[in-house]
Design brief:
Low-confidence stretches: 3-9, 72-78, 273-296
Helix content: 25-40%
Strand content: 25-35%
Oligomer: single chain
Radius of gyration: 23 Å
Distance between the termini: 17 Å
Mean pLDDT: 79
Shape: globular
């Protein structure tokens, strides 16, 4: 920024050669726009166009292709994810440490069960999945979270640091997450009590609690402005951008809406027995439209088929007309969802519970890959299939949450990938080594994937 300030994002204009910061609180680009009436700027970190007249980032198909192409050149902007390794100066220090623990191939360090505190299997599964999330572990064990002594007793993030440390302590007895449960009860009243909760609902609420703790600690942007997404670690790791395109059938005008999401909720079977796109995606407030699956359970479906339905155009009938900003009146239209930006870690929620006159569970087998390519579901790929950039959308599976039983009486277990080589079945305090086939044939309810190539923008 050419002014004295704390940078959040830097934009520039080629016509005047001016560089300015762009943030949710105070922005020098606003002052430059007011003084010069220059409307279009470019975000230097991400290559997006900022229109000050519209007060938002705008989409340009030609520039988007150039931006995506520059990312795929690997000019220091993308890299395969690698876990932390000590530097040469750090190696002698670690060697002299009396607490040093060498983790070899096949070691079980990092694997510990979690005590069931009374119908808390839903919490155990989500915590096990998060504790085996590589990038989240790197953050919480790198001393980037700090709290005062007084704040620690009520800090969910501090308790998360303690869990990571306990997991990697080398101890083998189960961990009792009673303090974590108490903090969740006191800070998310909807989850309080010993009633069985939904693992997916707990996951969304838990991320939201961690988000608020980290935002309060660092004073970062909380993402209330669409122009300034939250910059806390939780959002940097788990938040993607979902684009919804509404096209008017009368004038063919398309309006675009982009919302943040923490997971993608996909229908296990097509709505009304037809092959339509799902009208749901969990956003940060856990808003998710209800589906209406067919009466009879279908056979085996693939995750790719679910994602195809999710991003396929859906015709909105006369009962669901949209107000066209171009026509000025309600018109019939078509809605299409796509992934504007994919997060580092994506959680795919499989909607196995049907809520109608009587709630029931769908037990259809789901085939899911251990390596998933989300490139075909990106907004840029849908608009121009010839420009699919595979490396940006390649993911690797590292955790699966299963729901066993019925809607009224069930139990959660999960599978986690340990040290990148062996799968383990986690059933509260019991951990068992299993082959990949066991994971593949499990009744997946939530799937956790991490990017194989991380963009440094």
């Amino acid at each position: 920024c050419m002014e004295t300030c704390i940078l959040e994002a830097v934009v520039s204009t080629q016509s005047t050669g001016y560089f300015a910061c762009h943030s949710s609180t105070s922005s020098h680009v606003n002052l430059h726009y007011a003084a010069t009436n220059h409307k279009v700027y470019m975000d230097l970190s991400k290559g997006h166009l900022l229109c000050m007249k519209c007060e938002m980032f705008v989409y340009c198909a030609e520039l988007e292709l150039i931006r995506m192409g520059s990312q795929s050149e690997k000019a220091g902007r993308v890299a395969a994810f690698e876990e932390w390794e000590p530097s040469i100066p750090e190696i002698p220090l670690l060697t002299r440490s009396s607490k040093r623990r060498r983790i070899k191939s096949g070691s079980t360090v990092g694997l510990r069960g979690l005590t069931n505190l009374g119908s808390t299997c839903f919490m155990s599964c989500v915590l096990q999945s998060l504790l085996h999330t590589p990038v989240l572990r790197e953050f919480f064990l790198s001393e980037q979270h700090h709290c005062s002594q007084e704040e620690r007793k009520n800090c969910l993030a501090c308790e998360m640091v303690w869990l990571f440390q306990e997991m990697l302590s080398g101890k083998k007895n189960p961990i009792s997450p009673h303090k974590m449960l108490h903090l969740v009860w006191t800070q998310a009243r909807a989850l309080a009590g010993y009633d069985q909760q939904d693992a997916h609902e707990f996951f969304i609420n838990y991320l939201d609690l961690l988000h608020h703790h980290l935002v309060k600690e660092h004073g970062v942007s909380n993402g209330t402005s669409s122009r300034a997404p939250c910059t806390c670690a939780i959002h940097q790791i788990f938040t993607g951008r979902l684009q919804s395109d509404l096209t008017c059938h009368t004038c063919r005008h398309t309006s675009e809406t982009v919302d943040p999401f923490w997971d993608v909720s996909v229908d296990l079977v097509a709505s009304d027995g037809t092959d339509k796109a799902s009208d749901s995606a969990s956003v940060c407030s856990s808003l998710s439209a209800e589906s209406d699956p067919s009466e009879e359970d279908a056979g085996t479906v693939t995750l790719e088929e679910c994602l195809d339905r999710f991003t396929r155009p859906e015709r909105l009938g006369a009962e669901a007309k949209i107000r066209c900003s171009n026509c000025g009146i309600a018109q019939e239209g078509t809605k299409r969802l796509s992934l504007k930006r994919v997060p580092i870690v994506v959680c795919i929620h499989v909607k196995r519970f049907r809520h109608s006159k009587k709630t029931r569970k769908l037990s259809n087998p789901l085939e899911f890959p251990f390596e998933l390519d989300l490139s075909p579901y990106l907004t840029s790929s849908i608009r121009n299939p010839k420009q699919i950039t595979e490396e940006v959308g390649l993911y690797r599976l590292f955790a699966v949450v299963n729901h066993m039983g019925t809607y009224d009486s069930g139990h959660y277990i999960n599978y986690v990938l340990h040290a990148g080589e062996q799968w383990f079945r986690c059933d509260d305090t019991y951990l068992t080594s299993v082959p990949k086939e066991t994971v593949k044939n499990s009744e997946a309810y939530m799937l956790f994937y991490q990017k194989k190539v991380i963009e440094y923008l």
